[in-house]
Design goal:
ligase; 12 strands; single chain; 5 helices; BirA Bifunctional Protein, domain 2; 2 domains; SH3 type barrels; alpha+beta; 7-stranded mixed β-sheet; about 250 residues; globular; BPL_LPL_catalytic
Length: about 250
Amino acid sequence: MTPDKHPNWPEGHRCIVLDTVDSTMAEAARRASDLHYPTWIMAREQTDARGRRGRPWENPKGNLSATLLMKPLCTAQAAAQRSFVAANALLEALSLYIDRRRISLKWPNDVLINGGKAAGILLESSGRGPFVDWLSVGIGVNLSYAPVVEEAVFAPVSVAGEGGEPVPPGEFLVTLANAFATQEKKLDAMGFTRIREDWLKHAARLGDTITARTTTETIEGLFDTIDKDGNLVLITAKGPRSIPAADVYF
């Protein structure tokens, strides 16, 4: 049974399950013009999966690899806020299988369990006018296995390896799809302010000194908040800095 045949699958959403694909993100881009409903694309195996900034992403069988293709009527800036929508949804979904107190959200797009990387989020969009034509939200979750990544700053961990309940990828996708739909309703009803507030409640190292590395500089400061656009705000020796994109270390 595919996830969208599950009785708890969110209404109005579709699901495509593939045995093998280069990446669910690439598949979403190929199908974008033909899909008119929010559609999850899940693959049992990816041959060319990637993460942020084109980094490779390993996904052993038993882990979740999925992309949500959607067509929100919004600007590129608003579309980027779905990274935080996805993070909140992942936290809520994962908390059904592992103690939520072990889960934290690392800016800009990772979910940690006991300080190790358990899930990653990747956004891609396309559009020529004021609004995006489509948005893809790629999500990888280490449910059963933690890939081996040499010299990883945040060592990969899995839900099962950290003492969580075992869950098949398809079953977890049903939980995640519902959690994402709920977060979308929050965004529609209450705006990004509510999404931001919920994200900050679980932000990793909020109030601590962290390091942000952009393509041009390294910035150290106290992690104060994220602003109304989702930018990282650090209190540095030279005053507050708002950082739209960076890799974070602590």
